[in-house]
Amino acid sequence: MGPAGHGETNGAIAPSNAEDLETGAAAGNSAPASKEELLQELGVDAEVFQMSNAWRAGTEDAKSTRRANSMLDSVSKMAEMEGGASSVARLKRVIHVTLQWERLTYSVTVGRGKKRTVKTILDGISGHLEPGRLLAVMGPTGSGKTSLINALAGRLPRRAGRLLGDVLINGQPRSRGFRSITAYVLQDDVLYGTLTVRETFEFAAAIRLPAAVSKATRTQLVDDIISELALGKAADTFIGNAFMRGVSGGERKRTNIGVELLSNPSLLFLDEPTSGLDAFQAQNVMEALWTLSSNGRSVACTIHQPRSSIFRMFDQLMLLSEGRVMYFGAAAAAVAYFSQAGFVCPSMFNPGDFLIDVTSMDYRSPDSEALTRRRIQLLGDLYQRLGADTASEAVIGEESRRDIKLADKDMQFANNMLTEFSLLLGRAWRNSSRNRPLQVVTAGQTVIIGLLLAWLYSDMSPTTASGVQDEIGILFFVCIFSAMGAMFGALTTFASESGIIQRERASKSYHVLPYYLARFICDIPLRVGQGLLFGCILYWIVGLNPSAGAFFIFCALVLLLSLASQGLGVAISAATKNEKIAIALAPMVTVILILFGGFYVSVDSIPPVLRWIRYISHLYWGFMGFTINDFAGRTGWGVQGQISGDQVLDGLGFGSNHLWQSFLGLSLLIVGFNLLGYLLLRFTKPRYLPLANPPAKKPEKELLTQKSTAVATV
Ligand SMILES: Nc1ncnc2c1ncn2[C@@H]1O[C@H](COP(=O)(O)OP(=O)(O)OP(=O)(O)O)[C@@H](O)[C@H]1O
Q1: Which of 346, 349, 355, 615 has the fewest CB atoms nearer than 10 Å to its CB?
Q2: From residue 30, how far is each of 125, 261, 559, 565 by CA, in Å?
Q3: Residue 46 C-alpha to ligand 1 middle, in angstroms?
């Protein structure tokens, strides 16, 4: 692979003159028919299909005059302010990245048993992206846009299939350093709704930049990003969530992009950055991307159907359909290319809509399906004949050559674990304390359940026939209530944060341990508050053990039980990695642990082989603690007050147990469940599909035979 052989390289990849075209045709390997045959079938006179410069050479380098390099300027200034610290200067410098991809083929196995087939999602796609350019990957739905961006960013899920081809960064295969210079912006915004835009950036700056970067510099960097993304007006507004109104969809999207910019990526991948936005917001987001690319970055995004003003911002366009390239080159020249191929865009028509119309399958009737399928096949063949071979060729500029080594630096954590912990604790605390709806719901349900129970059991008397059973029942209910609330709280919290954690871990923002500890510690006040509230309402009204010490032990047990349940909730959500599966699984786990909790089946009645299960049931230890705390050493139950508390404990199988065992059991489970949750979170990183070598080019003779067979079949 080398410099393009067709002069201007800012987009068009077809040979630059008729001679080149013929050469391309001769070498052109996998096209099933000659250019003339293809044009004939498309209904275009070959003579008319002039290789005019209009679509081939693409537009002028419109950006070069507009490329302000403002970011680079301010970055250099900041580096000076830092006393020229080389690490700081390097951290903020945009590296020039030329991305090339050649014959990318991605296939997956679909179906089961005899119906198993291999589905080709990307079929030999080649292209390139140079620094300072904005590449749009367009195509009808299901054409392979997301798969291509994921393949280029190295983000295809590992179990998904097979990926063949070459992806080069400044002429070199992607190395470990690839991630340190790239950012990948997901389609869904993953942000804390309870933080403002500025706080979100400040946190990202603090956690991603080394401690050597002063606060003033970080503030400057945040201000720069806010102005670069035109977020000035929204800077101090909350991001917002289901309970709290926040910034607009476009501002949210730009904040999402801005977070990635704080690690100063040189290569930016975005999947559908305008999805779900109205035309105006979409325009703002794309303008922000245009500015970012103008500052020397290489930006690639998928986009479904851009309005015409957005289309004009694209430097390069890769148009896909059915996993094949329909066009790759200067975006401004795409319409001319298609009009030469016989598809003329009506005047005043949005080019984006036109290109999608031309390359979409029409499934409305068998005839229209066959017709559009054939059209797409011909357009794919025509493109392959004209430009596919040279599509991955790019000029690797001087800056890119110089930057090869910088692009090879592996990503490192910026701070030590203690700093990470304090930053994460600050964020978690802010998030929890501002999450009023959660606090109100937690407090509300505690008060309602507490009062309801108190009311139901207010007439409870130890000297009735059912007195003992009533008291045991209420204690077990306390166990279940404390456990369920904490577990489902943890399930939803961790599930809602999992996107954020994944993104931050992918950019090596922090270790899992400080994150986990910060979350754990941050939840303690909520659990303590809930335990005390519940205890205060219920304990005295119902008339449990009246000693003050027993009351505090009761509250401590509620707290420990909640913390153990929280750990179990985290472990379940870390193991399942999916909120819906986690919420479906949690009740089953809870029911098993309830069964072994000592209330429904006494310990002696459990088959010996299953008895060990009670030791991993926090409900068992909690229930044991509550009953010992309430019954031990007391008397006065039964109609004549003849039943002692110790007899009750004997009946439950807790006669020989002590309170300290309950505390110890719960403490061990808190450690055990949380350790399990931590380890699952730590070691279950998303795994991505490695890139295998591209298939060797087949000898021309073999290809020609295949082509004639293919044409004959059609
Ligand atoms: N792991 C997979 N297993 C089976 N089919 C898959 C897999 N990944 C993608 N596909 C299929 O490949 C095709 C391309 O998917 P992709 O998401 O890349 O398309 P897209 O152009 O981004 O679509 P959209 O615009 O709807 O997001 C689709 O038909 C999709 O269903």
Answers
A1: 346
A2: 12, 40, 69, 60
A3: 35
Write the pLDDT tens digit of every residue in 587-599. 888 888 888 777 7
Sign of the torsion formed by the C-alpha atoms of 420, 422, 425 and 430: negative
Tens of pLDDT, residue by residue over 279-289, are 888 888 888 88
- Assess if residue 277 is contained within a domain: yes
Supply the DSSP symbol for 658: -
Atom of ligand 1 nearest to the CA of 302: 22
Asked if 89 and 175 sit in the same domain, the reply is yes
> How far is the CA of 80 from the CAs of 71, 105, 474, in angstroms?
14, 46, 68
- Counting from 1 in the atom list of ligand 1, the atom nearest the Cα of 271 is 22
Top-ranked range on mean pLDDT: pick from 310-319, 519-528, 642-651: 310-319
Task: Pick the residue whose CA is nearest to atom 3 on ligand 1.
Answer: 108
**Distance from the alpha carbon of residue 654 to the mean position of ligand 1, in angstroms:** 58
Name residue, tokens 């007439």: 459
Best substitution site from 122, 146, 149 to test ligand 1's pocket, by max atoms within 8 Å of Cβ? 146
Question: Ligand 1: which residues within 6 Å by Cβ?
Answer: 108, 110, 119, 121, 139, 141-147, 160, 302, 304
**Residue 423: domain span:** 417-683
Interval 317-365: pLDDT, tens? 999 999 999 999 899 889 988 888 888 888 888 899 999 999 998 888 8
Domain count of the fold of the chain: 2
Band of pLDDT at residue 712, cut at 50, 70 and 90? very low
